[in-house]
Every structure is written in structure tokens, then in C-alpha cells.
Amino acid sequence: MSSVEVPRESLRDWLLSERPRSRRQAAFGRAYAGWRTFARNRLAMLGLGIVLALVLVAIFADQLAPYHPYIGDLRTTRLLPPAAAHWFGTDDQAREILSRIIHGSRITLFVVVLVAVLAAPIGLAVGTVAGYSGGLVDAALMRITDIFLAFPRLILALAFVAALGPGIENAVIAIAITSWPPYARIARAETLTIRQADYIAAVQLIGASPWRIVLRHIMPLCVSSVIVRVTLDMAGIILTAAGLGFLGLGAQPPTPEWGAMIANGRLYVLDQWWVAAAPGAAIFIVSLAFNLLGDGLRDALDPKGAK
Amino acid sequence: MKAGLSIEGLRVVYDDFIAVDDVSMRVEPGESFGIVGESGSGKSTVLRAVCGLAPRTAGTVSLIGAAGLPEPGTKAYRRTLQMVFQDPYGSLHPRQTVDRILAEPLAIHDIGDAEARIERALDEVGLGSGFRFRYPHQLSGGQRQRVAIARALILEPQILLLDEPTSALDASVQAEVLNLLEDMRRRHGLTFVMVSHDLAVVTHMCERLMVMQRGRRVEELSSADLARRHVSDPYTKRLMEASEGFRRGA
Amino acid sequence: MNEASRRSDLLVVDDLRVAFPDRDGGMTEAVRGVSFTLGRERLGIVGESGSGKSQTGRAILGLTAPEGRVTARRLAFDGIDLMTCPPKQRRALRGGRIAMVLQDPKFSLNPVMTIGDQIVETLDAHARVSRREGRERALETLRQVQIDDPQRMFDLYPHEVSGGMGQRAMIAMMLIAQPDLLIADEPTSALDVTVQLQVLAILDRLVAERGMGLIFISHDLRLVSTFCDRILVMYAGRIVEEVSAGRLHEAKHPYTRGLVNCLPRLGEDRHPLPTLDRRPEWAS
Ligand SMILES: Nc1ncnc2c1ncn2[C@@H]1O[C@H](COP(=O)(O)OP(=O)(O)OP(=O)(O)O)[C@@H](O)[C@H]1O
Ligand SMILES: Nc1ncnc2c1ncn2[C@@H]1O[C@H](COP(=O)(O)OP(=O)(O)OP(=O)(O)O)[C@@H](O)[C@H]1O
Ligand SMILES: [Mg+2]
Ligand SMILES: [Mg+2]
């Protein structure tokens, strides 16, 4: 047993060393310390577990789904209640709901990832540049942000989708366009406090260009709060996507998008409650998971809490 | 090539508040010059204006000592003149290792040979290579101030501006940092301009000093005069008395 | 120190310990059994960086970081047991009867709120006042801490004031709270000596006239020895020595003597300055 234990012990010591001997060790060490703070938070670990499960389900949807998500036998399996053969029952088109939810996870993940990839960098860039330059640039960028912020998200998304035509891609673009302003505000607020710090004055003194300062010295400090905010926003994003789906402006039939599934189920909600309940529960669980994850990340990424 | 510093008629205005008004001083190459004065009198602002961190409304700042010294605002000027800040907790980037902090000036000025230079800089300030990959939060106040000094010296400047480099440190660490600074000055033939509100520290480090009050220069005198209490200005006198400690009913 | 002040103990600290989790899942003590009592007097705490001065003050106030663990045989303020009293009462005490001026004004002030608004906010927490009156009171307090132009200071953001002005803003907030016990953590380290003395004179008056108890944490030996009634010297989380003020040069502990010795002195040529040579046995 000791032969297994020894190398594991020393890896941990290597990671936690007070005197790292290389750049890599220092970076890994900090990541590991952050991970330990994160791992102490049970709920955050639960959130992480669910999100990872979502990813796995999306990747292996074809293997996991017991039935075809689009095609059912209309004569025999229409609106069946949950049972051993169909865990979550079937819908009005005789499609098995569990299989549809499993395939729907791909769409949810697609929305989540794309919004994160589009909105977070835009927000971060706008916010840090505005905050660091100040003056006219700041005023102009923040007025634009305010305009976007002034519209309710769903309504703006509706307008975009109406202009671009319904469909999941357009829904994603609409959501991304409407969700960056809060990130810009957060990044700007952080930048305003960071900008005054002596360590920024010190790199200015060395002769660093404004771009270098924003990219290499300010952004890394704003990234963590934006990540946290994005994660916490994921629930809202999923709900907006579902809302668009529900209104028929997001994913189009027969795509098994969770929101569209609820919309479909509302016709039967009194007698065949499972048609709407199952996708509803899926949205709820995934949204909650992202929230828990965000809370954990906030503690783990807080530079002040870093030890 | 040693460089000195000459400031003439410096004036710094924020909105419509005059932070520094008509300050002139001349620091000879290799000299150590002190600035003392009450809080908010513009000491830090003078240093910041010299290195371009505060807006210079009027007046001139120039390097003296030899021909061909760079003009303020140029990249070469930045290499001639560096600054150490007052608060060691605020002057190091919280997410960068000591290594990264010291590599940055070298990268910006395209100086090769970074490995050896960083090692040497750390050695000089008495931090072995064991500190090289630590983050600032893993360092004590005195160690941080040493890193800040190493960062300032890695570009091999001729002039070092010191803004209360030890006021956030306790007495024993202050002694270590002051000794280190003196040692560096001797070794590299540096010119110092040092701000402090501790008269004992300034007279220990500097040959001459300027007293400031409300953005203006009130007096310039030598440390020897101060030690012998040959002061003329009433504010300087008050400063002298105050530095002896608290007196009840005074 | 006078007997009357000793008898009416405002604060009793007995065997205070503060521990933080370390990397190996254990706990490391930052404060290791500190005991003292405080009357309505000026008590100085000196010691090097990391010796646990601030953590002692924070523990008394209940401001220890959440991961830290505070234990004490007794920790009582004016007869109220702080270790067992309900959190709500503790918070009320903290806002009202006990106050602390934190180290690092730049970190403790809200960077996106003007100094004036922050002072008014503190005032609001204590008394219902109109906007106008709040402003008046805030300006008055800024004047008390020797700010030349309070009107201007009122509308400045923390990054627009000098280090010493920020510190005085913190003190102004404390003055508005009018506490019975004040823990001042390095309140004057960024002030020039003349202003420092004026601020100390204010604190001194509060002790003498209002009977406030003052714990003055500092590393400025000269200042502490002239201002306080007695001094606790901390090293590695413990009190290694208590000296009465003015007797600092008679201190026995080698650490205290070393500290006194490494100060530069006006009119003395000491190049290089003597430094402190720390011994492991001091920490035990
Ligand atoms: N960015 C700014 N905007 C407006 N006013 C400023 C700014 N920076 C400094 N000031 C003002 O300039 C004056 C001088 O400030 P400075 O920091 O130079 O004082 P100092 O002499 O270094 O004081 P201390 O000893 O307290 O550090 C102060 O009144 C301050 O409010
Ligand atoms: N949140 C924390 N987690 C772990 N250790 C901590 C924490 N906060 C403080 N410490 C440790 O407690 C010890 C005492 O710290 P403290 O802030 O009381 O020192 P200090 O005497 O006030 O020093 P200084 O003069 O620098 O302010 C230090 O060694 C510090 O590393
Ligand atoms: Mg200053
Ligand atoms: Mg402290």
C-alpha cells in the first residue's frame, strides 16, 4: 500500500510547495489550491457533477437514448404514462420523452457553450477597454451597453429572432447579443478599481503600452468575476432559450429542445402531466447545477481568498 | 553614466485643485535627495509627475549630468528612471509570480538574457531563487518591497524615485530595506530621490532635503543642518518637534 | 496606570487563540494565548509584521475571516461575554460601542463611493439624520481630523486622496460612531508626524474626556512609547513582554531591545543600521 501512497503524497507536496521551482509548478500549484477550495464546497461539487453529467449525456446521446427521439409508433405508444418501458412516458407524437431529453441536452449545451464563447469575451473586452481608457471611449462604450441593458432580454431576443427568422442558431445569437452588457459592466467596475492600483502604475512606468496593460495585466483579474457571473447566468440563458423554444421562435420541430417540449406538453398538462413535467425538471436541475457551480467558483477564484 | 534630475517650476493641477505649485529642485548625479512634508502636500505627486504618472501642467523636468540623456516621455527615459511605491501590498500584481513581474520590464524593452538577469536581480536584493516562482501573497511585506526594488533595478536605471519605501514596514524590516537601498546605491552609483515623513529616515538616507507644505517648497536644507537643528522655517521646526513623539497637552 | 481604571475593566481577554486551517488540513495558530485587560486607558500593541496584532484586534471585534477559529477562556466587553453572546448583539456592539480603524485605508474604503458618502453612510447606521445634516456632521468630522479643505475631500474618491488623507477618512468614520472601545490598527502609519500628533491628540481627548478604551496597534515604537500608558510586545502570536510606556529602553526581552535598536536616529550616523537577528527560541 505504501508503494502507491508515496508518489501520490509527493505530487501533492509538489503542488502545494511554498517554494515552487518552475513557472509550471507555480501555475499548477495555484490551480490546485483553487481546486481544493472549490472541492471543500459540497454543493458546488454537486453542481459540477451535474454539469459534467450533462456533457457526457450530450456526447453519448446516441448510445444512451433507448429509442429514436423523432419517431414513435403512433398507433401503440401515444401519450403513455411513465412505466418501466418508457421511464418518462411518451408524448403526443408517440416519441419517448427520455430519449428526447437525452438528445435535447445537446441543444442545451450548444446554447450554453456558444453564448459563453460569444458573450463573455465581448463583455470582457468592452468593459476593460472602457474602464481603462476612461473619457470619451468609456462614455461611448457604456452608452451602447446601457442601450442593450435597457431592453428586457427576452423581448430583444424576440426582436432579433423575428428579424433573422426562427431557429436555434438565431436564438443563440440573439441571446448572446443580449447577454454581454452585464459582463461589460462587471469588467468595467473591476477595471476602474484595478486601474488605480500601484501595480498598474508600475507597469506604466516600465513603458508598457495600453493594450499590453489591458490584455496582460487587467483582463486576467477581471476574468474570474466574469466567469462566475456567466456561470450564474447560465440558468437564465437556458431559460431564455427554453422561452424562445416555448414561443416557437427557437428550435423548430421536431428538434427535441426542452423549452419547445414544454410548449408541446402544455396542451396535455392536466391529464398527461409527464409530457411537460420531465423537460421542466431537466431545465430546473441543469439551471440549479450551474448556479451551484457559480457559487463555488466565486469562492475558489476570489483573489483575496487565495492562499 | 550617472544622471541627475532637475525640476523647474513644476506645477500639477487636478481639475482646479493645485496639488503642486512652482516646485524647483536640482539633484546632482549620484546624490541622495529627500522630500519631507505633511500629508497631502504633494510629495508623491512630484515623483509621479517626474515619471509621467501625474499630469504636468507647467514646468520642466530634465535629466542632467551628461550630454545625450533622454528626454522625458521616451522609452529610454523610462529605463533611466524608476520608482518604488509606498505600499508593498499594492504594488505587485496579485496574480503574477515574482518571475513574471521581473520578466515584464525585460520583455517590454526587448532585453534578452532574462533568465540570468532575473536570477541576478533576486540575488542582489537578498531573495534567493527560492522566491522566484512565488506569488505576492506568499511573501511578507519586507520581501514584497525587495521584489519591488528588484523590479525597479532590473532595467538598470540611474535614478531611483522612492515613495515612502518603508512606511508600511515595521522597524526591523525597515532597517533591512534601508540597508539594502544604501547598498544598491553604492554598488550602482544611483541617484536617489526619497519621500518620507520620518525625518530620522530621511536624514539617515539623504544628504540634502526639501520641505514641502501645501504643494509648495518651504525650505531646502542639508541633513547635517537638520541634525544640528539649524532650521529657519516654522513648519520645519514643528516637524522637528513632532518627530520626537507625542507630548500630552502639547 | 491608575487603580480606578484597572478596576472597571472594559475588556477582559484571557487566553485568546486564533487558528487558521493550513495546507495539511490541520490548524495553525496565528494568535497563541493572548491575555490582557483593558480599562479606560491607552494600550499599545507592538510587534513585527505577522506577529498577530491585527488578528488579535479582529478577534475581539468578531471580524476574523470565516475559515479562522477563535477560542478564549474569557473574552468579555463591559461584562458581556463576547464568545457566547448572540451574533445580532455582537453586530450591534460592533457598529456602536466597539469600533476598529482597519489597517490599509485603500483596501478598507469603497473605491467607487466618495469619501463623504461613506462617512454619511456610517452616520446613517447610527442615527437617523437628514441628508443636509449628515453632510454637515461629516464635514465637521473631517475638519476635526485636520483636513484642510473638507468640502473638496467630501466629493473625492479614495484614489484621489493621498495615503494620509485616506487614513484620516477612516478615523473620521470612527469618530462619528463614538465608540466606548476603539481598536486602532496602524491608524497613523501614512500620516506625517505633525498630523499624526494632531490625530493622536483627538484620540487622547476621547480617552481622557469620554473614558474611551483604546487599543493602539502600531509598529512605530517611538510613537507608542510616548503615547500609550503601557505596551504589549507581541512576537509570533504571543505576548513576550509588557512594558510601561516611557520605560521602553529598560525592556528585557532581546526582541524588544532589538526593535528599539534598529531605528535610525536623528543626528546619529549609523551606517548600516543594526538589524534584528531572530532566534527560534523567542517563538516558543
Ligand atoms: N488623481 C487625483 N485627482 C485629484 N486630486 C489628486 C489626485 N491625486 C492626488 N491628488 C491630490 O493631490 C494632493 C497631493 O497628494 P499627494 O499624494 O502628492 O500627497 P503626499 O504629499 O504624497 O501625501 P502623503 O504623505 O499622505 O502620501 C492631495 O490633496 C490629493 O488629494
Ligand atoms: N485568513 C487567514 N488564513 C490563514 N492565515 C492567516 C489569515 N489571516 C491572517 N493569517 C496569519 O495570521 C498571522 C498574523 O497576522 P496579523 O495580520 O495579525 O499580523 P500583524 O501582526 O497585524 O502584522 P502587520 O504588522 O503586517 O499588520 C500571519 O502569519 C498571517 O499569515
Ligand atoms: Mg504620498
Ligand atoms: Mg496588521
**SSE run of chain C:** HEEEHEEEHEHHHHHEHEHEEH
Instruction: Return the CATH class of the domain at 3-97 and 215-283 in chain C.
Output: Alpha Beta
Decide which structural class fits the backbone of chain C: alpha/beta
Biggest interface in this structure?
A: B-C, 52 and 50 residues
Q: How does the major sheet of chain B shape up?
A: 6 strands, mixed
- Please state the overall shape of chain C, judged from the principal axes of the Cα atoms: globular
Query: What is the radius of gyration of chain C?
Result: 19 Å
Helicity level of chain B: 25-40%
Number of helices of chain C: 11
- Using only C-alpha atoms, the radius of gyration of chain B works out to 18 Å
Amino-to-carboxy terminus distance of chain B:
50 Å
Strand count of chain B: 9
- The number of strands of chain C is 11
**Which cofactor or ligand species appear?**
adenosine-5'-triphosphate, magnesium ion
Structural summary, described in words:
The complex is a heterotrimer of chains A (about 300), B (about 250) and C (about 280). With about 300 residues, chain A is mainly alpha-helical. Chain A has one domain (about 55-305): Orthogonal Bundle (MetI-like fold), CATH 1.10.3720. Chain A has twelve helices and no strands. In chain A, helix 6 packs antiparallel against helix 8. The longest helix of chain A is centred in the middle third of the chain and has 37 residues, at about 95-135. The radius of gyration of chain A is 23 Å and the shape is flat. With about 250 residues, chain B is an alpha/beta fold. Chain B has a six-stranded mixed beta sheet, sandwiched between helices. The termini of chain B are far apart. In chain B, about 55% of the residues are buried. Chain B contains nine helices and nine strands. Helix content of chain B is about 35%, strand content about 25%. In chain B, helix 6 (about 170-190) links the parallel strand 6 (about 160-165) and strand 7. By secondary structure, chain C is of the alpha/beta class. In chain C, the strands form two sheets. A six-stranded mixed beta sheet of chain C has the order 7-8-9-3-10-11, with helices on both faces. In chain C, strands 1, 2, 4, 5 and 6 form a five-stranded antiparallel beta sheet that branches. The longest helix of chain C is centred in the last third of the chain and has 18 residues, at about 195-210. Classes of the chains: A mainly alpha (about 300), B alpha/beta (about 250), C alpha/beta (about 280). Chains in contact: A-B, A-C, B-C. At the B-C interface, helix 6, helix 7 and helix 9 of B face helix 8, helix 9 and helix 10 of C. The complex binds adenosine-5'-triphosphate (2 copies) and magnesium ion (MG) (2 copies). One magnesium ion (MG) binds near residues 43, 44, 86 and 163 of chain B.
